[in-house]
Design a protein that fits this description.
Helix 6 runs antiparallel to helix 7 and helix 8 packs antiparallel against helix 9. This protein folds into 3 domains: 180 residues, Serine Threonine Protein Phosphatase 5, Tetratricopeptide repeat (Alpha Horseshoe), CATH 1.25.40; 169 residues, Alpha Horseshoe (Serine Threonine Protein Phosphatase 5, Tetratricopeptide repeat), CATH 1.25.40; 119 residues, no CATH class. Helix content is 45%, strand content 3%. The protein is built from 23 helices and 6 strands. The longest helix is centred in the N-terminal third of the chain and has 26 residues. The chain is mainly alpha-helical and 574 residues long. The radius of gyration is 27 Å and the shape is globular.
Length: 574
């Protein structure tokens, strides 16, 4: 029997060799692996599905914190808006020179494609979660994994809708290239994200034992923003009755977060440094070990996680490079009085992005000056000279000296772009890691994706858009009361261009909100009007000669989608 089998094997091998000899050399050399990974066989356990979600959390952290200090992320976080510009030493990378900004700009493609990368991961997690061979510990475990994936998909489409308008809605995994994606409308994009969140709201936990994972309040906050965005677009298209319904829903979902009993504004000192006399409650919000809801911070709805031990051992991106990226540089006239690295000058700043005069001064002018958020511990305006030859050595340097210390107007303008107040959100007086060789470039605290203050400001805007200006003012005053402001706003302050709301957002959410999302979501010419008015350098006023309220669809996307025309957004059809 063994001899017969042996002869059969040789006969089979000979026949295979004969067949192979009849084929081309290229076909003979082509590899045919016995196994290869597909979406269907790459996942064998539920924990592997969850790892897809972990990769989304990681990518979102890198998008928000920007540990690689990528220029396009600086724009996503606000560079080029009314709030931020670049200093003189970065003027070549300005995002306010519209002679250089068009649909081929890499910023737009990077932002657009990043959100679709997240959508792709969410779609993969959803597909894998339903594979028949995946075993789950419970139905609730599976439901939570799918709820997180759908949250991320909705979150991505909310951002795409606010920035780019209607975009293709991709909900499946494709095994072959496609070149025929169709744009939805902006309303359809918002509605898709709303439907996603409505479907999973109750599958998300109210709280978690550890920070970082998505909870129900994060979905409700995003529903409040999405209904507000939807209503704004409906109103712009003349659909007033539907807009009113959307604004009412926005208020209802904001109420769930604000008045639901889980979250509340922190109105008293708390956390790791609460006993220090120099601080205040707003400053407490941005100290190490104080950010997460699990740390006792009832204001944190969703936080990104930073871990110094992980940074030291395996995860070099687990950091907030805010002191380096956002703190000032003392050159030109200021160098005669102030220089170097240290907690008193904002760490080791190189200033990739700086606050405009609007952000640092205008919003605190006149009656708005008395504000906890404008105190020196929160927004440091007092710098003591540290150059021995300076007449201001060891004493506060007047801002007129730092701003206008030269007889040359160009030098003074450059210097004003490099010298500015330092927010407690980007610097600290106690830098972690100095003993280990860290150089005061990075913070090692957690940070906010969503803080209750923003939910309150969304509700204020929804109330105003729904005709309730007194209610809008009352919401803003919740924040102004906490900040111990000397002036409280009234219904008369709630102007139709939403300047009061935008100013309050700038005071409360500096270095937190994604300002482009806010300005473009508001529609009309709000974004371009404010850029023209508040941009630091004159290029914006000189080159922003057209109106827009959406970023352009990246030209690469339009060109690649060859089988279905994708219309370009208004203002960018050039």
């Amino acid at each position: 029997m063994k001899h017969t089998i042996y002869k059969m094997k040789w006969a089979l091998l000979l026949s295979m060799a004969t067949v192979s000899a009849c084929k081309s050399d290229m076909d003979f050399l082509r590899e045919r692996p016995a196994t290869f990974y597909t979406v269907d066989n790459a996942f064998s356990t539920s924990s592997q599905v969850d790892q897809v979600l972990v990769s989304v959390y990681s990518q979102l952290r890198d998008l928000w914190a920007n540990p690689a200090e990528e220029g396009w992320i600086m724009v996503f976080r606000g560079n080029g808006t009314d709030m931020y510009d670049v200093p003189s030493i970065r003027r070549g990378s300005s995002f306010n020179n519209y002679g250089n900004i068009n649909a081929e700009n890499a910023v737009f493609f990077n932002c657009y494609s990043t959100w679709y990368q997240l959508i792709s991961k969410a779609n993969m997690a959803l597909y894998a979660a339903d594979l028949s061979h995946i075993t789950w510990a419970s139905d609730a475990e599976k439901a939570y994994v799918k709820a997180q994936a759908r949250f991320f998909r909705a979150f991505a489409y909310r951002n795409l809708g606010e920035l780019f308008g209607g975009v293709p809605l991709v909900t499946e995994i494709f095994n072959t290239p496609r070149f025929d994606f169709k744009r939805s409308t902006r309303i359809e994009t918002y509605q898709f994200a709303i439907d996603e969140l409505l479907a999973i709201e109750n599958d998300l936990p109210e709280t978690t034992t550890r920070g970082g994972r998505v909870v129900r309040g994060a979905a409700q906050h995003n529903l409040a923003e999405l209904y507000l965005a939807l209503g704004t677009q409906l109103k712009e298209e003349g659909r007033a009755a539907e807009a009113t319904t959307a604004f009412t829903q926005s208020i209802a979902y904001a109420n769930k977060v604000i008045d639901g009993g889980t979250y509340s504004l922190m109105n008293a000192r708390f956390g790791s440094r609460r006993t220090e006399a120099q601080g205040n409650v707003y400053w407490d919000l941005f100290q190490e070990n104080n950010v997460n809801y699990q740390d006792g911070n009832k204001e944190c709805v969703w936080g990104l996680q930073i871990d110094y031990a992980a940074y030291r051992t395996e995860d070099g991106k687990s950091k907030l490079p805010y002191s380096r990226a956002y703190s000032p540089v003392f050159r030109d006239g200021a160098k005669d009085h102030l220089t170097g690295t240290g907690p008193d000058v904002g760490g080791r700043g190189v200033s990739f992005m700086m606050p405009t005069m609007y952000t640092r001064d205008d919003i605190y002018n006149g009656a708005f000056s008395g504000d906890m958020r404008n105190t020196d511990i929160v927004f440091r305006r007092v710098f003591r000279g540290n150059v021995a030859s300076s007449p201001y050595f060891g004493v506060p340097i007047p801002w007129d000296v730092m701003y206008y210390g030269s007889a040359n107007a160009t030098t003074n303008m450059n210097n004003r772009s490099l010298c500015y107040p330092v927010s407690c959100k980007i610097a600290t007086d106690k830098y972690t890691g100095v003993a280990d060789g860290e150089n005061m470039s990075n913070l090692f605290r957690d940070d906010y994706f969503i803080r209750l203050s923003e939910t309150i400001l969304l509700r204020a805007e929804a109330k105003q858009r729904n005709g309730d200006k007194p209610g809008a003012a009352a919401d803003i005053n919740l924040l102004r009361t906490r900040a111990q402001c000397t002036y409280m706003v009234s219904a008369a302050d709630m102007d139709d261009n939403f300047n009061t709301i935008l100013d309050e957002r700038a005071r409360e959410l500096i270095y937190e909100e994604c300002r482009w999302n806010t300005l473009l979501r508001m529609g009309g010419t709000i974004a371009v009007d404010r850029i023209r008015k508040y941009a630091y350098w004159p290029e914006a006023q000189a080159t922003l000669t057209f109106n827009y309220n959406l970023w352009p669809i990246p030209q690469t996307v339009i060109d690649t989608n060859k089988d279905e025309p994708l219309d370009q957004n208004d203002g960018w059809k050039r």
